[in-house]
Predict the structure.
Amino acid sequence: MSTNESSPVQAGRSGASASRAVQKASRARSDLRRVAVVTGAAAGLGNGIARRLASDGMALVLSDIDGDKLASARRTLEADGHAVETFQGDVASREDQQALVARAVEAFGRLDVFVNNAGIEQVKPLDDIAPEDLERIFRINVFGMLYGMQAAAARMRIQDDGIGKIINACSIAGHESYEMLGSYCATKHAVRSLTQTAAKEYARDGITVNAYCPGVAGTSMWTRIDQAMGHYMGTKPGEAFEKFSAGILLGRTQEPEDVGNLVSFLASTDSDYITGQSIITDGGMVFR
Ligand SMILES: NC(=O)c1ccc[n+]([C@@H]2O[C@H](COP(=O)([O-])OP(=O)(O)OC[C@H]3O[C@@H](n4cnc5c(N)ncnc54)[C@H](O)[C@@H]3O)[C@@H](O)[C@H]2O)c1
């Protein structure tokens, strides 16, 4: 076959049905500064992700519900010479998520990467979970993530250069469910599900959607989980954290930098051919 003849497979995907992702990737301009939004970026894993994407050369919009921590995170990044904007908002508010994307475009002119990182935990035996508990955790971890994807995709699909990257915070708890963490695990399974659906719906717009699934990181989230497990199971401070992480094959708990490494890859052009995946980074705990 000559080089300008296409195979049946290529022919089937050519013309009007050619992937918009391929077209957008080929138009990616290296002279543009890429712009990333990270929610829940004032502390913990989100802050580690923001620091990594900033050192990768992206302009950053940090979003968080906690205004004081947000201001402090901004000062730290600016002191290191990074281009940073902030937005104080609640991911559970659809209007806030839309305003967050508008802020990114207003500040830096475009949006390339949207990291739906903000999330909360909940420790309760199934029999104690009340309707308001479920509403609270689903509003932040699931509704908030979906609103973030909707707002990001609305902007990314009108940009015609470079693939848009939506990256969601899932967890090993999105692959495996744990006792006392039933509602949390249910939200993270929902994140994995919505990541797949979004990948299927947004590919035609030149947007990839993936998730990162951390294991056990000693952020303030785990301090609260450890305390709550102590309340229900009579464990001493630090004991639940130790028990949970005892079997990690690589012999240590997770650092924000470990998560930053994976998100940096998912935000880069090196992952342009990956979509719909929820990738585990846990030092060897859960195998899928
Ligand atoms: N820490 C872990 O071991 C672990 C493991 C797997 C997955 N995760 C996931 O990673 C993400 C970050 O976890 P973390 O450990 O850094 O949590 P964290 O509690 O230490 O930090 C979360 C940040 O999100 C912000 N936030 C909380 N609710 C918000 C809201 N409604 N709107 C905007 N911002 C909000 C908080 O102010 C805080 O700055 C979460 O989605 C979590 O479920 C964490």
Q: What stands out?
A: DSSP finds ten helices and seven strands in the chain. Strands lie at 35-39, 59-64, 84-88, 113-116, 164-169, 207-214, 278-281. Confidence is low (pLDDT under 50) at residues 1-17.
